[in-house]
């Protein structure tokens, strides 16, 4: 697998890029991230929602930040951060007795969501350097509509130059669920991400 990933010539983080992941979360930043979450969302397995953290911030804020920074530094989540409650949500279409009309959601602990939001904000600073120019479905300053414009341009070019061809589109159901976590970790290592992430 390692040889395969090396042969792909993936975009990699430079040492300077890695500095975006060297920072620790501050109390002010943690509180700001917490306030960005929607109110009245179901809590994770610990039963602690956003409103609890806000109400008792002056008492628990410093300890929460210490826990988050320890998790971040050591790269090892707490047991409650590793656990989600799975609930099924009806998609509001089709027969309610058909399981395909339901989708699972994971209810995650607020402390875990703060940590992942912190990581996501740091990652967004360098994501465009890592993504291929043709990857337009995700990332800052990316628009999925760019792919539609590219396809239209290619079809127009083929038509003007009398080039025959075929357009094939694949859409895998539950695509993310099909990717092994170990493979994702190996790709991140090949892209030079820090080992604690």
UniProtKB/TrEMBL annotation:
For this protein, the record's Pfam families field holds: RVT_1
Show where the Reverse transcriptase domain sits: 70-197
Q: Which InterPro entries does the UniProt record give?
A: DNA/RNA_pol_sf, RT_dom
Organism field:
Mytilus edulis (Blue mussel)
Which PROSITE patterns did the record assign? RT_POL (PS50878)
Q: What protein am I looking at?
A: Reverse transcriptase domain-containing protein
Its domain of life reads Eukaryota
């Amino acid at each position: 697998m390692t040889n395969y990933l090396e042969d792909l010539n993936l975009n990699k983080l430079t040492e300077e890029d890695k500095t975006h992941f060297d920072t620790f979360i501050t109390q002010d930043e943690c509180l700001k991230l917490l306030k960005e979450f929607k109110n009245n969302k179901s809590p994770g397995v610990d039963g602690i929602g956003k409103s609890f953290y806000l109400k008792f911030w002056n008492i628990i804020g410093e300890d929460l930040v210490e826990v988050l920074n320890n998790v971040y530094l050591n790269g090892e989540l707490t047991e409650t951060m590793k656990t989600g409650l799975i609930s099924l949500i009806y998609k509001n279409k089709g027969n309610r007795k058909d399981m395909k009309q339901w989708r699972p959601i994971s209810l995650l602990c607020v402390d875990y969501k703060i940590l992942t939001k912190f990581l996501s904000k740091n990652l967004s600073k360098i994501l465009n350097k890592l993504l291929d120019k043709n990857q337009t479905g995700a990332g800052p300053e990316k628009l999925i509509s760019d792919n539609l414009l590219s396809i239209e341009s290619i079809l127009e070019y083929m038509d003007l130059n009398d080039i025959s061809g075929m357009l094939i589109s694949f859409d895998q159901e539950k695509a993310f669920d099909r990717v092994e976590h170990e493979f994702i970790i190996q790709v991140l290592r090949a892209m030079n991400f820090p080992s604690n992430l």
